[in-house]
Amino acid sequence: MCTIKKIAFFVMLASFIACNNPAPKPVVKKDSVVAVPQAKAGDPMKLDSSKRYIYLTWDDSPQPPGTTVSKNVFHQQGVKATFFVVGSNQVGPYKTRIVDSLRNGYPEFLMANHSFSHAKINGKDNYSLFYKRADSAVVDFLKNEKELQVGVKIIRLPGNNSWVGKGKIQGPKSTLEVCKRLDSLGYKVIGWDIEWNQNKTVPKESVDEMVKKVNEKFESGYTFEQNCLVILSHDRLFAKPQYADSLNKFISILKKDPRNVFETIDHYPLAMRK
Ligand SMILES: [Zn+2]
Questions:
Q1: From ligand 1's centre to the CA of 162, what distance in Å?
Q2: CA-to-CA distance for 97 and 104, rounded, in angstroms?
Q3: How many angstroms separate the alpha carbon of residue 58 from the centre of ligand 1?
Q4: How many angstroms is it from 233 CA to the middle of ligand 1?
Q5: How do 202-203 and 194-195 pair as beta strands?
Q6: How many CA atoms lie within 13 A of 146 on its CB side?
Q7: Ligand 1 mean position, distance from CA 170 (Å)
Q8: pLDDT tens digits, 162-199
Q9: Which domains does the chain have, with CATH numbers?
């Protein structure tokens, strides 16, 4: 065989071997595939009694730019937070996208129910009439749940610090009928232990005052649930850069205490109670 023929022969032989002996495919054993379960809003978790759980709960979302600013601060700080949404605030595609991002933001963010109308009757907040008409108030919460696709049965009442869970109700008498009905439908109502109040459209307390409030409340033991603190504020207060900065500082200081853990409100003891 001449050299050229020899080369041609070996090339043919090599390609024949390659065709009949394909590279072995990686063997994936069935039991070696680890299924990572997706965290689902409302799934319970075990709390550590040596920790202090902080629940940042921001009301009246979506209210851009405050909602997006707050979300960005929480994200950059790596802390979890809950946004209580109001259906009537979701007007137009931009606000719809914000609500979508909250709904899809779990486990970082939890979206919960703050009523559809925010107790507005004829365009104005009218808490006394809203709670007096208990049936229509309940319909308003159910409407919000449906329209915004709120995935958890957790509610904050507009304008009232009421708590409801498994037959236990605490709060102003005016909300009692609504609370009873929500309880019978299996809803949990979450109030708050302390508030970062508003002065017109900006935060009223300084960062230091808020940190003091947090520590004093934990130390007093007068929180609704032991070792758990629900903080209420509103997205809109942190829209301006200087107040976004306050929120950043507040969280940075709290993070320095190794006992502090930030959780979403579905992991609050009352919300997890069966
Ligand atoms: Zn509100």
A1: 13
A2: 10
A3: 9
A4: 9
A5: unpaired
A6: 6
A7: 18
A8: 999 988 999 999 999 999 999 999 999 999 999 999 99
A9: 52-272 (3.20.20.370)
